[in-house]
Amino acid sequence: MNFVAIDFETANESRNSACAIGITKVQDNKIVSTEYHLIKPPEMRFNAHNIWIHGIYPQDVENEMTFGELWPKIKHYFDEELVVAHNASFDLSVLRSLLNYYGFEYPNLHYICTVLLSKNKIKDVRNHKLNTLAEYVGHKFEHHHAGEDATACAKILIHISENYGIKDLLSLHINGGLNIGSIYDRGYEPCTSLIKHKNNVTKKEALSLSLNENTDYFFDKTVVFTGPLDSMRRNEASKIVMKLGGIIGTSVTKKTDVLITGIKCRKYLDDMYKSTKLKKAEYLIDNGQNIEILTEEEFLSIATKEGITH
């Protein structure tokens, strides 16, 4: 397989606060290049919890390039490529947030998540976290170093490719059981699994999950829901957001920060079938508004400890 594995580390809860990126390029299932860059975030605000995770301090990045300066040097890795990440909903949302912040056009790319793929193909592991899977495939690395994490992600996909007959996008879909994610001009489609697992959150039990109290993602943000959710009623999901410091909005406005939808393939949904809220959010995004659209799966991966695998 040919692909590029990436990993971001962030300075704080904001998705545009990337302070490091790792990039590992693979051709014919062989690693051909690796890059690691420290990044100076837009605001030099580092949360203690984030520092505890990755060990990057403000003084480490104060003389580094901003993402706006770095992007022209690394953009070629993303153009018309298959991009891979472990917990891709996080890393690709960081990429989109950075591109939005600095006013860059989105590259055209496909992407997949090795968390979802490994859950579909690798059964004899205690969990599907990056360090667990890296150990399973025999790769030693320094966890939460963006360069090391990107290479570990690449090693996991190489292992799956070589052992499960997955060679390209078509086999990722058919054999891997994935809906391939994509990023295109000012839009995106998430990577999702076609396979339901017993440990997937599918019923009201989602409310009994341990909240990821270390995330500030929803703190002081206005969150709006549209359409039915599979795992719980909307008022139950709203309680989760409020417990994490979010504010529930009833309609999409310029004050909206996050829209959560049960729709999985909105790219292919005709406008006449889209909800008013979804159409309004897409209109505002097209006109420069910073609104994040999350699938239900992405929402739960951020909000609950059980969903966190990065």
TrEMBL record:
Source species: Clostridium paraputrificum
GO molecular function per UniProt: 3'-5' exonuclease activity; DNA-directed DNA polymerase activity; nucleic acid binding
Protein name stated in the entry: DNA polymerase III PolC-type
EC number: 2.7.7.7
Alphabetical list of NCBIfam families matching this protein: PRK06195.1
Lineage: superkingdom: Bacteria
SUPFAM superfamilies named among the record's database cross-references: BRCT domain, Ribonuclease H-like
Record domain BRCT: where: 213-301
Top EC class of this enzyme: transferase
Keyword line: Exonuclease, Hydrolase, Nuclease, Nucleotidyltransferase, Transferase
GO cellular component term, pick one: cytosol
A Pfam family the protein falls into: BRCT
